[in-house]
Amino acid sequence: MSMLTREGKWQLRTFPRRLLIRLILGIGMLLAGVLPLLLTLDRQPRVLSTHKAPVASLAVSPDGNLVASGAGDFDIELSELPSGRARAMLRGHRDWIFGLAFSPDGRLLASASWDWTVRVWRVADSTTQQLLQHDNIVWDVAFTPDGATVATASEDGVVRLWRVADGAMRTTLPVGSAVLSVAVAPDGRTLAAGSSDGAVRVWELPSETLLHTIPAHPELVFALTYTPDSAMLVSGARDGIVRRWRVADGALVGELSGHADRVFAVAFSPDGREVASGGEDRTVRLWRPDTGDELRRWDVGRSRLRACTPKWTGSIGASIETVTDCRFDPGFAPAYAVAFTPDGRGLVFADEERVRLATLP
Fold first, then answer.
1. Cα–Cα distance, 276 to 256 (Å, whole number)
2. What are the pLDDT digits (tens) for 203-214?
3. Phi, psi at 125, each rounded to 5°
4. What is the three-class DSSP state of 179?
5. pLDDT tens across 135-154, in order?
6. Could you tell me which residues come within 8 angstroms of residue 164 by beta carbon, excluding any fewer than 6 positions away?
7. Could you tell me if 206 and 166 are in contact, meaning their C-beta atoms sit under 8 angstroms apart?
8. Which are the contacts of 144, defined by CB distance < 8 A and separation ≥ 6?
9. CA-CA distance, 119 to 131, in Å (whole number)?
10. How much is the pTM?
11. Residue 301's pLDDT is what?
C-alpha cells in the first residue's frame, strides 16, 4: 500500500514536470519552424503600385519621397515612398515608356517613350513643360547635375542634348547605331551612351569631345550607370553580363556574372558599395562589385503579355500597333527597371505590372 502511495505521489509530482518539458520542447520546435518563415515574409518586397501593363522604367526622386513608374499602358504613376500612396498619374505618351529621370531638384520629371518623344513634366501639377520630338523610338533620358540640360538616347543613332528651359536642342552627339541607354556622371564632367553595336561611348562635358569608344559587349547595351564618385561606369547588355569600366581610360575593371539572359537595368547604391541589376531571366540581383559576390536575389513575374515585349529582329523597338495585339504568355517577365532610394535602405524594382520595394539591411 505504501509502495502504491509512493508511486502514485511520484507520478503526481513528475507528470506536470514532464508535460511542461514537452510543452517547452513543442513551443521551441514550433518557433524554430515558424520564425524563419515570418522573417522571410517580413523581408518580402511589398507592392507599391500596379499598372495595367508591365512596368518598364523607374525613378526615385532626390528627396526619396516619390517613385515614378512608366509602363506599357503608356502611363506614368507617381507614388509616395514608402507608403505607396498614389500621388498623380501623368498621361500623354502613346507608347511604352522605357526611360525616366528626375531633375536634381526633384521639380521636373523627364520621360522617354517609344512614341518618338521625350516629355518634361512639372511634378507639382503633373503638366508637360516641354515636348521633345525625335526621329525614332526613344529609350532613355538623363539630366545633367545642374538640371539645365537633358540628354536623350534614341534609335535614330544620336544622343541629343536639350535645353530644359525652352526645349531647344543644343547639340547632337553622333553614335552611328541605335542608342539604347544614356547616363551623365554625377560630377557633370562626362556623358556615356550604350548602343546596339555593343559599344559604350564616353564624351567629355562641356566640350562634347569623344574620349572613348569601349567595345563593351557583343551587342545591345540596354543599361548604364555611374558610380557616385563618377570614376566608373557599369553596363548591362544582351549577353547577360554586367561589366564595370574605368571612366578615365575605358579599361575593364570587373564582371558580374549570373544572369541567364539580357540585362535591362543597372543601378549603383548611393554609397557605391552595391550594384543592382534586372534581367530577362526574371531576376533582380544585388551585387558587391568589388568582389563580384551576389548578395541577394529576387525572382519576379508570374506571366507576361509576350506580344507587348520588344522585338529584337529587324527594328529594335516594337511598333505602337503591336501593343494592340497582346497575347498572354505565362512565365515570361523581364525585370526591366531597378532604382535605389537615396538613403540606400530600399531597392525599388519592376515586377511585371507591379512596382515593389525591398528593404535592405
1. 11
2. 999 999 999 999
3. -120, 5
4. strand
5. 999 999 999 999 999 999 99
6. 103, 108, 120, 129, 130, 143, 147, 148, 149, 150
7. no
8. 150, 151, 184, 188, 205
9. 5
10. 0.81
11. 76
